Amino acid sequence: MYNFFLGLHSGLRYIVLLLLAVAIVLSVTALFGKKDYTQTNRKINLFAMIATHTQLLAGLILYFFSPLVQYGNMGEAMKNTLARYWTVEHAVLMLFAVALITVGHSRSKKDVAAVNKHRAIALYYGLAILVIVIAIYQSGRPLLGMTSIGS
Ligand code: HEM
What we know:
Elements: H1 2-32, H2 39-65, H3 74-79, H4 81-110, H5 114-139
Protoporphyrin IX containing FE (HEM) is lined by residues 6, 9-10, 13, 16, 52, 55-56, 59-60, 62-63, 66, 68-69, 86, 90-91, 94-95, 97-98, 132, 136, 141, 146-147.
């Protein structure tokens, strides 16, 4: 079970990062080029949010299986860098990134003007990808690459 969800969560990161990167590039180029908000924009932005929410779900399940997560013993977990990262820091940073993406997507839907829709995606998805990259970097694991189980 643990291996399955770790593999899923680990692999999903590529889809999340790729879709976010494409959504950001498209929105930034559309902003500068004063382009319309197309069906492609809408779909990519939506798929990026769905992928992130799927990743959130896999992460939440993994949280209860990972031997590195010690939510039952917070006091001890806070004293240990590795346990603190996986018990608190990773989850908090990633939840923040997911919230940014959700808000950005919702704003892009509510706004009427194309420029505002593109701006919402560029800003919120842009901040989110930054938070995600920093969080993965902080873990000491490769940004793009699997680690062996439990390392
Ligand atoms: C956009 C959201 C997220 C991304 C991009 C992400 C990314 C990652 C990555 C790259 C790893 C390392 C996988 C490996 O070493 O192969 C990981 C592990 C993990 N993540 Fe996330 N994560 C996200 C959200 C979450 C959330 C919201 C939670 C929990 C509430 C969570 C809990 C975990 C846990 C428990 C591990 C495994 C630690 C272990 O046992 O090795 N993740 N995540």
